[in-house]
Design brief:
The protein is mainly α. The protein has one domain. 75% of the residues lie in helices and 3% in strands. The protein has a two-stranded antiparallel sheet. Strand 1 and strand 2 form a beta hairpin. Helix 1 packs antiparallel against helix 4. The chain is elongated, with a radius of gyration of 22 Å. It starts with a helix and ends with a helix.
Length: 232
């Protein structure tokens, strides 16, 4: 039973870390006020597009982000460009964003599964109070440390050649080449250049790192407190 409790604790930690990572992604791209406007200004995105206003571009972006969360049925977004009404995204971009939406919704589903599994494992450990403090916090510490260590190594590897691993990411998660866009015909690649993805990845890494260290610190503090109480 002792080893089962430890496995449960480590599994809970892994689930919590996955939850924190997916939430960090959501927080950066959905909850950061003015983030897209800031990035569009930084990379002079409007200069890459047919004449349009920042207000219209942000409206397009808002509808695109709603689509990724399943709040819109399609990505046929009408806006004003070059003085005329037209669809912002073409068929190739829409097809690619359907794949992106599927990936995003899967991530949200995984987060829900992790939340449910964490709750079940914590309840299981709570019913065996003899091991609750002795195993739970050390196991959470171990699981959090292992997961964070692995992610840190992966982040360092990716940061050494972001472009290479950005392309590899697309090869792994997409089964077609719709993600290969042409800046002369496709608006999507112009509004989110590689620099945008680098900035976003950096923000996600910082937020995830902070939340992970906070979780680890809480687990470590409670572990040490319990050990001190047992010795005393």
């Amino acid at each position: 039973m002792k080893y089962l409790h430890r496995l449960s604790g480590i599994t809970t930690a892994f689930c919590l870390m996955i939850i924190l990572f997916i939430t960090s992604v959501e927080a950066v791209i959905y909850w950061t006020p003015g983030y897209f406007e800031q990035e569009y200004t930084k990379y002079n995105v409007l200069d890459r597009l047919p004449p349009m206003t920042m207000e219209d571009l942000l409206d397009v972006t808002s509808q695109m982000m709603d689509y990724l969360k399943g709040r819109r049925q399609d990505l046929h977004v009408i806006t004003t460009m070059g003085g005329e009404q037209r669809e912002f995204f073409n068929e190739r971009e829409i097809a690619h964003m359907e794949d992106v939406q599927a990936l995003f919704l899967k991530a949200i589903f995984i987060r829900r599964v992790c939340l449910g599994l964490s709750a079940v494992l914590l309840l299981f450990m709570a019913f065996t109070r003899a091991w609750m403090k002795r195993v739970l916090w050390p196991s959470l510490c171990a699981g959090t440390g292992l997961f964070f260590g692995a992610v840190t190594v992966l982040a360092l590897v990716i940061s050494a050649n972001f472009t290479k691993y950005f392309v590899l990411f697309h090869h792994i998660f997409f089964t077609n080449d719709l993600w290969i866009l042409n800046p002369d015909t496709d608006m999507l690649i112009n509004i989110v250049p590689e620099g945008f993805f680098m900035d976003t990845a950096g923000r996600i890494a910082l937020l995830f790192g902070f939340l992970s260290l906070l979780l680890f610190g809480i687990c470590l503090a409670l572990t040490m407190k319990h050990m001190k109480k047992e010795r005393g």
